[in-house]
Amino acid sequence: MSSKKSKPPVDKNAVRARLERAKDEQLVVGVRRWIRGADYIEGFVVGIGARWVAVAGLAGRVRFDGFALLRLNDIQAVTIDPDPDCFTVKALRARSEWPPPSTEVELDDLRGAVTTAAAAAPTTSIFVEFDRPDICYVGSLVFVDSAVLRLLEVDPQGQWRRKARSLDPDDVTRIDFGGDYEEALALVAGPPPRD
């Protein structure tokens, strides 16, 4: 059995219940996934689907920083700050950034998630954390179906690559969009070249 399929037992109903509570009550969450080397995600749950959850992410400056879409099956633990008026919420209110931003993304399958995320922002970050937990591929979605996801990447210097990268959709563990980094790359790179 591959490492992509094996994981410690997790009570999926309990995870989902915690995510739903956090969403309904607009509570700060921390999400830990069982993927070795994966980032700890902190923010507010703004959507839950059959296979994915949307989190309005928080930057270290206590500001919203785009959205992270996470596969539900990868979630190992959800911590909730039960105080609806905690420091983070107070800071966001003081900055006129409350309530958490919403997003209209499909969360029932990868194709819907990546397509709607790509439609919401000029660039999208795609993570394949089992293979490379330390990097993400940022770019413009070219094509996705059950067999392949093709992304025209923009490099860290803000230059569009000439050829699209092909990824296995089953390997995608996280999709980010609307964050400062993706926005900065899109500003520098300009619109993607179209053939």
From TrEMBL:
Superkingdom classification of source: Bacteria
Full protein name: PRC-barrel domain-containing protein
Species of origin: Paraoerskovia sediminicola
